[in-house]
## 1
Amino acid sequence: MSSSHETYQCKGCTPGDFEGEAVVSNQPFGFWQGIDPGTGGVIDKRHELCGATLKDKVFVFPYGRGSTGTPGIFLEAVRNKCAPGAIVNVTSEPMIVMCALLAEAFFNVRIPIVDGLGGNPRDLFRTGDRVRVNGTTGALELLARG
């Protein structure tokens, strides 16, 4: 990893802090039929991240492709310890935010979400970058390039 430190001010949607490796996509994402909740792997064959894992990653993507089934699948991933550790969006949809709120309510697991990322996710981050997310303050830090 090469050293790089950039800070972005986003809007905090759900509280918590997480530092980890980023997985970045320019495509919207739906957890319902998009993730295997037993492994954290992306199973949507139409998505560019198919085959990648979101388990314990900072998942950076533009916005959710919602379904009311999203929180159920997401909570199953949390129960199995296979959910993303944090989410960064250009615009967070209510179902994605609900996932993190329910994870804390049911399993006492905080998954910070920030949105308001200014611009195309891939213009700012790459898969493999080391990122810190603070969902309380909205601070988003690129710590190192992957």
## 2
Amino acid sequence: MNVVLASASARRQELLKRLVENYQVLVSDFDESSIQFNNDCPGYVMELACGKALNVAEGLKTASLVIGCDTIVAYEGTVLGKPQDHEDAFFMLKMLSGKKHQVYSGIALVNTSNGQVRTDFAMTEVKFDQLSDEEIRRYIASGEPMDKAGAYGIQGHGGVFVEEIHGCYYNVVGLPLNKLNKMLKGIGVNL
């Protein structure tokens, strides 16, 4: 079966190669702002992932398995997406400094041959070290936090801020491989 990843994320593309040798990337143009956050992080990320996967699946002519994913960072009921600018990144990192937060990823699988849709999520708790304003500004100047939920990348320089992690590391990177593998097996896809 043709496998399609509905994501422009280079990190997700790299991680998916660990499960699937050959797949196609088709970037979704799903309007994420159409989904309201109702204080339900798991439901929110699964709905976003499903929207992306269904958006890509609509345009496919061949039988395919479409994988959609979305990741958010949550701290005390506040969802931290990608920072809008350097000031927003500073605000997020300052908020997370010395504290625990949660990273949620929703996954959606859409089988275009039978219309089957499956969704699930993963949650990882992350604790940051106490960060100085200078450390935060230096990190922001690197440019790394600007395209990442919560304004940091655990797989990059932002990883030095992480004091503890409880849960799936790959979830924090953006694609929980173990969860995805279980979901694929659950629908009879052994890659």
